[in-house]
Request: fold
Amino acid sequence: MLNKISKGCVNVMQKLLPDPFIFCIILTIFVFVVAMPLTGQGPVEMFNHWGNGVWGLLAFSMQMALVLVLGTAFATAPAVKRFLQTLAAVPKTPFQAIFFVTFISILACWLNWGFGLIVGAMLAKETAKILKKVDYRLLIASAYSGFVVWHAGISGSVPLTIAGTSEAEIAAMTAQTGGVITSSIPIGDTVFALWNLVACLAILIILPYVNAKMHPSEKDTFIVNAAILHEEEKVYKKAETPAEKMESSLILSYSMVTLGAAYIIYQIIKGTFNLNLNTVNLIFLVLGIAFHQTPIRYVNAVSDAARGAAGIILQFPFYAGIQGLMVGANAVTGASFAGVISNAFVAIATPATFPLFTFWSAGIVNFFVPSGGGQWAVQAPIMLPAAAELGVSPALTSMSIAWGDAWTNLLQPFWALPALGLAKLGAKDIMGYCLVGLIVSGVIVCICLLAAGMMGV
Reply:
């Protein structure tokens, strides 16, 4: 039964889903047109909202690009690749392969989303080299499906944002949330909250099994061309000139590793260590240099990884523009498109159902603003004051937004671009399978959020 459903979903997506950049353009046009009657604004106002928003996510875009590039560079280190090859030899059947890749991807994405995206795809490719009869499209879809937990993990931008401790970070949070959050919220109340851990654990157990059960029959299995899996190994000649010796210097590399490690350890000892986006990036920068050993090898790894960030560079300005359209308010009434969506859910919410409705509204908004930071900027000013009036905790509300952002990424092809580039597939090849994962993970998160809301967590 599940096999037939997934096959139908794959066929639909193959026919209907365009290239992610085309998808982005269509969303821009849709929001531009629909927002006018809903907010009582005209084309001139919408032009201005779009233009004012286009460059509104530059700093965040750089952070996100670094998370992806530094995570990818670390994942491609020889020692890490050898470890992945060892892991790829563990499953012996297609069912085991799909289950295993999904399981590892979920764990890796929970730890670091950029690292998890690439590790999952790399593990899938290594597995396909060994198991010739596994469906390659489902294997890559399984690797990407682990991304559904990223915003509930320790690299999630929303929990890390509200965990900020500097005066500037707290001032920004206070302004963004209408004064609801005036001090940092530790990740113990968000990422490590019991209900959140239960949701992640349930997905870790159930989603791999569901993905594995979707494996098509032998006659319908998509077998990848061996040429796609072939990779050229870089050969480094012996350093001869002074410049080449500096480029291959272990001393130079490990001096930077020592510097970065010393800073992190000092912050921990001092009690000022904060696991935010910048800290996560610093950790992966240090690990990447350490595992690649020489400066030139790390330079090459980062150069290769940067190609995967092309989608971020191209599409983020457009999504920032969409964000501008979403939050651009009527000068008289204050109505915005994002506000209309969010307020529609707020209007029918109770303290018990508010987290659930916040999750649903965030899932809808994420189609138009597929960025954790952008999602926060759009919804925090609306949902958090409403939550305060209902007596719902800001930590639970913030994580409801985070889960909604992560959830519909399974149908929003933007974040699949790096993994698809590595796998040499198109978004339409995997999104049919991801649709099933969307439904399964959505049910799990809904149950956990409803339980948390009813218990007043």
User: Anything to note?
Assistant: The mean pLDDT is 85.
